[in-house]
Amino acid sequence: MFDEIKNELTRKVCELKLWLANIDERNQYCNITKGLYFVYMYGIYEETIRQVVSTTIDELNNAEVKLDECVYELYSLIFSDEYDGMYNVGNEHKWEKRWKLSDKMINNPKVVISHDMMPTDGKNIRYKQLKSIANSFGMKENVLPRNEIGGYIQEMVDNRNYIAHGNKTPKEVGRNFTILDLKNRCDYMEKVCNYVIVEYEAYIQERKYLRR
Predict the structure, then answer these.
(1) CA 69, CA 204: separation in Å to the nearest integer?
(2) C-alpha–C-alpha distance, residues 169 and 40, integer Å
(3) Do residues 130 and 143 make contact, with C-beta atoms less than 8 angstroms apart?
(4) pTM for this prediction
(5) CA atoms within 13 Å, Cβ hemisphere of 43
(6) Contacts of 119 (CB under 8 A, 6+ apart)
(7) 3-state SS, one letter per residue, for 80-147
(8) Residue 118 phi/psi, 5° resolution?
(9) Cβ neighbours of residue 87 closer than 8 Å, sequence gap 6 or more
(10) pLDDT tens readout for residues 179-189
(11) Are 209 and 203 in contact (CB under 8 A)?
């Protein structure tokens, strides 16, 4: 499953770099194209992270492990419906919700997590969101291959948002970068994506979701 994500990432990055290679800096629309590059690049990055999360969840569900075998951090995903059900439920039903949660723990079922779960605050995926995902799976490793890459992730998200929300035009964003700058940004994004894929693949293969 993770191999499919790796292959798809490689294909998309090759397309992105080919697009970049065909940008003519003598063209009057060059800066617009360079600005839109951030939108394209962020789309690849976000979709890769989402695929990694959903694949990890699928592999956990397929592992058929019992609740009491899992690291406690995973309970934030396993009991997501129950936690949501207790939010603003009111005094009339709050104890019923708590009993149902207790019953689930007593019955010790096999782990089932929603395939569509994305354990973040719903905002664009920066370092904070990568950390939130890792914490929810109980992963202890660094979320980035090198800490300084976090600044490039922040820059990519900011520039994507400037354009998407109309705060800056693609031309205003693009004129601040050379073709080489953008190639380097693409390399950083690819490194992050490959690192995340490898870490979560190891999480499943080495059964790091189990209590030791």
Answers:
(1) 14
(2) 15
(3) yes
(4) 0.94
(5) 10
(6) 53, 76, 77, 132, 133, 135, 136, 137
(7) HHHHHHHCCCCCCCHHHHHHHHHHHHHHCCECCCCCCCCCCCCCCCCHHHHHHHHHHHCCCCCCCCCC
(8) -135, 100
(9) none
(10) 999 999 999 99
(11) yes
User: Residue 198 has what pLDDT?
Assistant: 97
Q: How confident is the model over 37-57, as pLDDT tens digits? A: 999 999 999 999 999 999 999
**Interior/surface letters 180-207, b for 16+ CB within 10 angstroms, e for the rest:** eebeebbebbbebbbbbbebbbebbeee
Q: Which of 52, 47, 44 is nearest to 15 (CA)?
A: 44
Q: Which amino acid is at 95?
A: W
CA distance 124 to 154: 10
Task: Give the pair of three-digit tokens for residue 13.
Answer: 């990055």
How high is the pLDDT of residue 83? 85
Task: Work out the average pLDDT over 69-83.
Answer: 92
**C-alpha span between 25 and 178 (Å, rounded):** 9
Query: Would you state the pLDDT for residue 180?
Result: 96
Q: Are 34 and 114 in contact (CB under 8 A)?
A: no
- C-alpha distances (whole Å) from 138 to each of 148, 150, 189 are 23, 21, 24
